[in-house]
Write a structure and sequence with these properties.
The complex is a heterotrimer.
Chain A: E1 2-9, E2 19-26, H1 33-44, E3 63-66, E4 69-72, E5 85-88, E6 95-97, E7 100-101, H2 104-112, H3 132-137, H4 155-159, H5 166-176, H6 184-191, H7 205-209, H8 216-229
Parallel strand pairs in A: 1-5
Antiparallel strand pairs in A: 1-2, 3-4, 3-5, 6-7
Helix pairs in contact in A: 2-5, 5-6, 5-8
Chain B: H1 17-44, H2 50-58, H3 63-91, H4 99-132, H5 139-144
Helix pairs in contact in B: 1-3, 3-4
Chain C: H1 19-48, H2 56-62, H3 66-94, H4 98-125
Helix pairs in contact in C: 1-3, 3-4
The chains are: A alpha+beta, B mainly alpha, C mainly alpha.
Chain lengths: ~230, ~150, ~130
């Protein structure tokens, strides 16, 4: 079947604004959106730029706005979206070219919450042990692949890019509720900031955008209540 | 490098109900703040005596302002019910799990209060209008004409 | 084996301000109270009574009891604080230029303060003329 694609293109060397370009490619309903982009890039228009790496929904490189919603191009099949397909870069981050955005602000926010285990004590003879019950507390938030689909679906982040964003809070949650970690207090202090968790307005866009099915808004709410109760 | 903050696409992000409720809550919130300021001014006129106060109140006594009043009632009611929904999502431990159900409950609650209130505000307007007007006044007259000033009589 | 204390790069412990936390919590608590006060006020004035019957004597009779004055003053204070904090967040979200934001916030706080003083004065100073 023929699939019509409408892609938002932007070339920093010649464009002042983004513009739509239209493509038609032959595709199987079982093919992924990423396959369509490959067909365009390899056989029709080599100037189309987009990020992808593993192409199997694990590396988190190819988050984009597909038919108005954040998705991973490698995870969505042609039959799952309506034809014609509209593709835009994720919102709220500076566009470098076409579907490639500058992820630096996103990773700066990620670094702010200290995304590593903090424990001053000696681990002992073996690794630090954790009970299955304690592991379950962070099961959901360890699934994050840092694709930025949640952060760039957040209406607060679009208008105020100083907001730390759902992804950073999810990753803070992953360590705050980790029984082996001792840096929770510091992370909660960071998330108390004017640009932290309390800017979340519970729009739930992040939860529906997450390609890993993480309950993002729930994680943010946990952090808010934790700050309120243990302040 | 020539970065561009947001490449304008004109397309609307297909957010979930929560996104539209967030936008709705902001718009009604800002509008209600503006109304609050006007309301303080119009109430403050009471210090200047009955004539000034009732002169200002007379502006509101026609059918167009009755429709606006119903809009005001809807805005306050919706902002309040949506606010309760937000409180439930934020402070109830399992609020975010049941957010879809909470959306539906809020809508049902809004309609259940909005419809009878609108009915009462509309019928009460016509009842008072017909009662205070001369015989022969029709409902259409009540809609297009300001109410007769029955106090001065 | 000696004890290592340098695992992970650690930021110095921050002492974050509690302002946003309290602001967030205040919005919820004042919101709950305003559901009683503002929605109650609106229903009393617009639904159970009709604003067509609203006149000087009505307000004078109402403010004859101190309870209604306290009710109205609480409503004034809480709705102004709730609205000001709400607009503060809206301005913070939508104005990225720091100078413009500062100006807008000052204008907002100034307006709220003026109307708080005006409203409080009206509620306290009102004496019925009839």
């Amino acid at each position: 079947m023929d699939i019509d694609l409408k892609i938002l293109r932007y070339d920093p060397e010649s464009d002042r604004k983004g513009h739509w370009e239209y493509y038609t490619v032959e595709a199987d309903p079982e093919e992924r959106i990423l396959d369509l982009l490959h067909k365009i890039k390899w056989f029709e228009d080599g100037t189309l730029s987009f990020r992808r790496s593993c192409a199997h929904g694990v590396c988190g490189s190819d988050a984009m706005v597909i038919n108005g919603e954040n998705m991973l191009a490698c995870q969505v099949l042609v039959k799952e979206v309506s034809n014609p397909i509209t593709i835009e870069p994720i919102r709220g981050l500076p566009v470098v070219k076409d579907l490639i955005v500058d992820m630096d602000p996103f990773f700066d926010s990620y670094k702010k919450i200290m995304p590593y285990l903090i424990n001053e004590n000696e681990p002992g003879e073996r690794e630090r042990l954790q009970s299955p019950e304690d592991r379950d507390k962070i099961e959901d938030t360890t699934k994050c692949i840092l694709c930025a689909a949640c952060t760039t679906s957040c209406p607060v982040f679009w208008t105020a890019d100083s907001y730390i964003g759902p992804a950073a809070i999810v990753n803070a949650h992953r360590f705050i509720y980790d029984s082996r970690d001792e840096g929770s207090k510091q992370r909660l202090e960071i998330l108390k900031d004017v640009n932290g968790a309390f800017r979340c307005r519970t729009a739930f866009n992040c939860t529906s955008a997450c390609p890993r099915g993480i309950q993002v808004t729930k994680a943010i709410e946990d952090v808010k209540r934790e700050t309120l109760l243990n302040n | 490098m020539a970065y561009q903050k947001i490449v304008s696409s004109g397309a609307v992000y297909k957010g979930k109900t929560g996104m539209w409720l967030y936008i709705f809550h902001r718009i009604t919130g800002v509008a209600l703040f503006g109304y609050l300021i006007l309301h303080i001014i119009s109430t403050a006129l009471i210090l200047l005596g009955p004539e000034v106060y009732e002169g200002a109140e007379a502006i509101y006594k026609n059918f167009y302002f009755r429709i606006a009043e119903i809009g005001l009632m809807a805005a306050i009611l919706a902002h309040a019910i949506n606010g309760l929904r937000i409180i439930a999502v934020d402070l109830w431990k399992r609020g975010s799990e049941f957010q879809k159900q909470l959306n539906i409950i809020s809508l049902v609650l809004f309609i259940a209060i909005f419809i009878p209130s609108t009915y009462k505000m509309t019928t009460s307007y016509f009842d008072i209008c017909l009662e205070k007007s001369q015989a022969g006044t029709t409902l259409t007259d009540c809609m297009i004409r300001p109410l007769p000033d029955w106090k001065s009589k | 084996m000696s004890t290592r204390t340098d695992w992970g790069r650690r930021e110095p412990p921050l002492k974050g301000s509690n302002f946003e936390l309290y602001g967030w919590f205040f919005m919820r608590i004042s919101g709950l109270l305003l559901v009683l006060l503002a929605v109650g006020h609106m229903f009393i004035m617009h639904v159970f009574n009709d604003t067509l019957n609203l006149d000087y004597e009505f307000v004078a009779a109402r403010w004859d009891t101190p309870y209604w004055r306290i009710f109205d003053w609480l409503l004034l204070t809480l709705s102004l604080l709730h609205g000001t904090n709400g607009l503060r967040v809206v301005l913070h979200d939508n104005l990225n230029d720091l100078t413009i934001r500062k100006l807008a916030l000052s204008a907002l706080y100034g307006t709220s303060l003026i109307f708080f003083i005006l409203g409080t004065y009206v509620i306290i100073a009102f004496v019925s003329q009839s």
